[in-house]
Design brief:
The chain has a six-stranded parallel β-sheet, sandwiched between helices. A two-stranded antiparallel ribbon has the order 1-2. By secondary structure, the protein is α/β, with parallel strands linked by helices. Helix content is 43%, strand content 13%.
Length: 310
């Protein structure tokens, strides 16, 4: 017996034009501009960017990403050049609210992925899954197809635990070119996934790349998600630490301590962390139209990539 189709999402307003003053739309968290948005707004921005043929990458950033940006100025530039930097973590949201961004809400990477995928059953957006341990992308593909009838997953790729060599890079480019995805979801750790997207978003034939960290493992059940009250209290880091103490103790305990110290200096005015004057993405062409991609003809149902048939 077929299940009833879910209600279609409401129509979305046009993507607002970029502003030259980043302070109007972003919270300044230690020099990283994090957009003052919520989950529906983030999904809408992504959907409209795809529909308008924009080309770029999306970062979902919390305390870990912000602290990596303090140690690595090039990584900070990568974040500040993204099409969108979503607030993944309550501390970034609290900072935004202290700076007057009262409507800012947490945008958890796995939630963003599921919301965009859910909407894509109606819009026809095509997805490619990149990352995870061996077998994870195949599990995730099956999980998404089960939860979201009609979703179009046109390819998957599990990279090695090292940078791609020249032959692997070429193979990936050809595979994505054949699959014609709109979005490549990147499930690696920070800062590896952001650096991969920054190095490849103009090179690969795809509109958007979105880094969602542990979303692949969470959606396949390999990492347990935290209860909502733990998320709301800003304690999801503790929940993850209990599951993976050997890998995460330094990230959370050391990073969190330094984050609180640096943020205190910023909030009381003893340290200043200016944001770059240019809008997210404008300095590297992230917001440019990708005319060739936006004009491409969609294949009919009988011409779908073999990766979509299963």
């Amino acid at each position: 017996m077929s299940s009833a189709a879910p209600d279609a999402p409401p129509p979305f307003p046009p993507l607002a034009p970029p502003t030259s003053n980043r302070a109007n739309s972003c919270a300044n968290v230690l020099g990283v501009g994090i957009h003052a948005i919520d989950l529906p707004a983030a999904a809408t921005l992504i959907e409209k960017a795809v529909g308008e043929g924009r080309k770029g990458y999306v970062c979902v950033t919390g305390v870990h990403g912000v602290m990596e940006a303090q140690r690595d100025p090039e990584f900070r530039k990568i974040l500040n050049r993204a099409l969108l930097v979503a607030p993944d973590g309550m501390p970034t949201v609290w900072v935004g609210r202290l700076q007057g961004k009262s409507a800012m809400q947490r945008v958890f990477g796995p939630d963003l992925m599921m919301e965009v995928c859910r909407r894509s059953a109606y819009t026809g957006i095509r997805h490619f899954l990149y990352g995870g341990n061996p077998g994870i992308v195949d599990e995730l593909s099956a999980t998404l197809r089960c939860k979201i009838p009609g979703i179009r997953i046109v390819g998957t790729f599990t990279p090695p635990f090292r940078p791609l060599d020249a032959s692997e890079q070429l193979w990936l480019e050809k595979r994505i070119e054949a699959a014609l995805p709109d979005i490549v979801w990147v499930g690696l750790s920070t800062p590896k996934q952001e650096k991969f997207m920054a190095a490849n978003f103009q090179r690969l034939p795809v509109k958007l790349m979105i880094g969602v960290g542990a979303a692949f493992d969470i959606h396949t059940g390999h990492i347990r998600d935290a209860p909502q009250w733990i998320k709301n209290a800003g304690l999801q880091w503790a929940h993850r630490l209990c599951q993976e103490p050997g890998r995460l103790w330094k990230r959370y305990l050391v990073n969190n301590s330094f984050f609180l110290a640096a943020l205190s200096l910023q909030l009381i005015g003893l340290r200043h962390y200016p944001l770059p004057p240019t809008t997210h993405g404008s300095s590297s062409g992230v917001l440019q139209k990708q005319a060739k991609t936006s004009l491409r003809v969609r294949p009919s149902a009988g011409q779908e990539s073999s990766a979509e048939q299963s």
